[in-house]
Write a sequence for this structure.
């Protein structure tokens, strides 16, 4: 699946409904991580995976109580294809959506979305403020500490790994690797005016 939506159009939609730097950074992070996963897993549709990552929380900032329910209406503004709408809505499966992740990309988005938040929180606590020097063992300690980044659901991360048929360690290792590989790219996006 390749997306027909130019990134500039998707970005304009995202910025229309999201102004908080934290939400923008999360969108850029998940976009970059999804592109990385598409390459890593051997998919040729990297831009589609990235677009789903970029827009996955398009409705969250302004419509938190309608998260994943308002998204189809907002995505219609840019004539998003049905596959993209389904992917965006499926990342909230069992939490705020009854749209089940079916394709591998949707399962990766479901799993990696929550985990990028945990990794990001752990990175902000490091002297370097970066995940590039983070070890998997350090991430696993943060994962086990339920008081750390309590808003990041460990159950969602575990469920995501199960949906993919992966060990939790594999999901953590790959997502950490993805964030290390794309951290500079996200920083560039955040510094654009």
């Amino acid at each position: 699946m390749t997306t027909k939506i130019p990134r500039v159009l998707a970005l304009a939609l995202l910025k229309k409904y999201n102004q908080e730097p934290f939400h923008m950074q999360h969108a850029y992070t998940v976009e970059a991580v999804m592109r990385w996963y598409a390459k890593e897993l051997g998919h040729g549709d990297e831009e589609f995976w990235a677009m789903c990552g970029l827009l996955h929380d398009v409705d969250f900032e302004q419509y938190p109580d309608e998260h994943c329910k308002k998204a189809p209406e907002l995505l219609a503004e840019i004539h998003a294809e049905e596959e993209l709408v389904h992917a965006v809505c499926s990342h909230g499966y069992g939490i705020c959506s009854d749209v089940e992740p079916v394709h591998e990309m949707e399962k990766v988005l479901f799993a990696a979305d929550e985990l990028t938040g945990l990794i990001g929180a752990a990175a902000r606590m490091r002297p370097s403020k970066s995940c590039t020097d983070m070890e998997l063992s350090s991430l696993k300690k943060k994962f086990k500490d339920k008081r750390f980044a309590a808003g990041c659901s460990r159950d969602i991360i575990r469920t995501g790994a199960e949906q993919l048929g992966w060990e939790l360690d594999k999901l953590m290792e790959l997502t950490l690797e993805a964030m290390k590989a794309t951290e500079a790219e996200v920083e560039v996006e955040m510094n654009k005016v």
